[in-house]
Amino acid sequence: MMRVSALALRIVTQLKNDRRTLAMMLAAPILLLSLVYLILGDSVPVVKVAVVNAPVELEESLEDLNIMPRRYDENGARRALEQGEVIASITIISGKSYIEVDGSNPTKAKVALAGLEQAKIGSMSSRPDLASEVSYIYGYEDLPTFDNFGSTLIGFIIFFFVFLVSGISLLQERTSGTLEKMLSTPIRRWEIVVGYVLGFGLFTVLQSVLISWFCVYILNVMMVGQFALILLITLFTAVIALTLGMLMSTLANNEFQMIQFVPLIVIPQVFFSGLFDLPPGMEIFKWIMPLHYIADALTEVMIRGKGIVTISLDLAVIVGCSVIFMILNTLLLKKYRRI
């Protein structure tokens, strides 16, 4: 019993002196729970539809159904659909409704269609006996939920594993003394960073190809765009995760502390990746989350069939962040040069 008590006392003393672990055990769960509450607590899907040619009564009916109508001309409605500003558009000609839908978000698409069908019953210029003509500009009717989330999941899985493996690997180099020995040679710090990126990069290329191929051709996740662009995006995803993982490893003293960064650095990004409707006050935070740009680029290619021009801004941000992380890695390695 004495030995058990002594061991327990040693563990308590060790944890008490480890402020980072205490903060992780006490503060991190509160942070994540607060984040989930703010995003999902009173979460109501914001469904916006474009009204091209329809009476005011239809707009009023949509508002009663908590659907936000916006008046557009025909070209403006199509542009709003393509840019994701609205989920559907409706035009009423000779009493018949013509509805275009963005099916890339099945949940919102179903809410919009149901609301439009219900609202047109009370519209004076619409004939409920005439079936609406529905066309999908993206996706299709009854698009599986996994197809909708699949693009984001591909980015998240690659980001998560590369971040963790790269961070722990560089940390082991440091704790084993290998990094310190390298720094005592004429090798420059930036050469070490670039060398690690290139070395891990070979394996991240293989991982990106494997995961993308498996999801698209084995799991049959919807893929409208070019597979080559998917490989390019996932490769950039691996690079930014690699450089961020290396950066975080410089702040950790052991593998356990490196794992502690996962709920602080990786998991919160899921909430800002586009899977959830964000409250107005939290929209701004998604612009500083790398996974947001990764998920947006993958969604544009896989579900909407867009090309390199559309995702160029996302790719530029991802590459820019990777360069910044590499520069910070180079600067932080200076503190480990002992000789």
TrEMBL record:
Q: Name one Pfam family in it.
A: ABC2_membrane_3
Q: List where in the cell it is found.
A: Cell membrane
Give a GO cellular-component term. plasma membrane
Q: How does it sit in the membrane?
A: Multi-pass membrane protein
Its domain of life reads Bacteria
> What are the recorded GO MF terms, alphabetically?
ABC-type transporter activity
Specify the ABC transmembrane type-2 domain's residue ranges.
Answer: 114-336
Record carries keyword Zinc-finger: no
Any transmembrane segments, and where?
A: 21-40, 149-171, 192-219, 225-247, 259-276, 308-333
Ordered alphabetically, the record's keywords are: Cell membrane, Membrane, Transmembrane, Transmembrane helix, Transport
Q: Which family does it belong to?
A: Belongs to the ABC-2 integral membrane protein family.
Protein name in the entry: ABC-2 type transporter
* Species this chain originates from: Syntrophobotulus glycolicus (strain DSM 8271 / FlGlyR)
